[in-house]
Design goal:
SMI1/KNR4-like, about 170 residues, alpha+beta, Knr4/Smi1-like domain-containing protein, seven-stranded antiparallel beta sheet, 6 helices
Length: about 170
């Protein structure tokens, strides 16, 4: 287990692991690009759900699956969404951000694909006020910094406000 996922599990006191492994190939085919290994590990450990009743992380599945990467991505295929994504291209186009989560306040988190190695893709955060923030972290590192006390991903850190926890998404 990577250090960030292990620390998230310890911080949230999460001891369960998903019962079945995910076949990521269909997920990656739907998205049209690979899913970073660190995200796969996070999803295999926790599944989709909410960290600290604040930060939602999507999981595998198709467009009909609640809280799935594919469904989140499909939601960004509209002219209004394209305006919000400026200066980035829409999902599906080269360099277009890929949504992987968000917050209960309306912030959305993306990968910014481009580098040859998906685990080097930065996290882009689109705040509820339509401001962009870039973090050169993996998704598990970002989530950890958002929910740990003294987290470093301002303005998205809540660890000083709420205790760290994880609540699986309803199926």
């Amino acid at each position: 287990m990577t250090p960030a996922v292990a620390e998230l599990a310890a911080l949230t006191r999460w001891t369960r692991r998903r019962a079945t492994a995910t076949d990521w190939l269909p997920v990656e085919r739907r998205l049209g690009l690979p899913v970073p290994a660190s995200f796969k590990e996070l999803a295999e450990t926790f599944g989709p759900g909410e960290f600290s009743r604040y930060l939602l992380v999507h999981g595998p599945g198709d467009e009909r699956t609640p809280h799935s990467l594919a469904r989140a991505r499909a939601a960004w295929f509209s002219p209004a969404a394209a305006d919000l994504l400026h200066p980035y291209p829409p999902p599906g186009e080269p360099g277009g951000p890929v949504p992987w989560g968000g917050t209960c306040h309306g912030d959305t988190f993306f990968w910014l694909p481009g580098a040859a190695r998906p685990d080097t893709w930065p996290v882009l955060a689109l705040s509820e006020t339509a401001d962009w923030h870039r973090f050169d972290l993996t998704v598990p590192e970002f989530v950890l910094e958002a929910i740990r006390p003294d987290g470093t991903v301002a303005p998205f850190a809540v660890g000083d406000l709420v205790p760290p926890s994880f609540l699986p998404a309803a199926p």
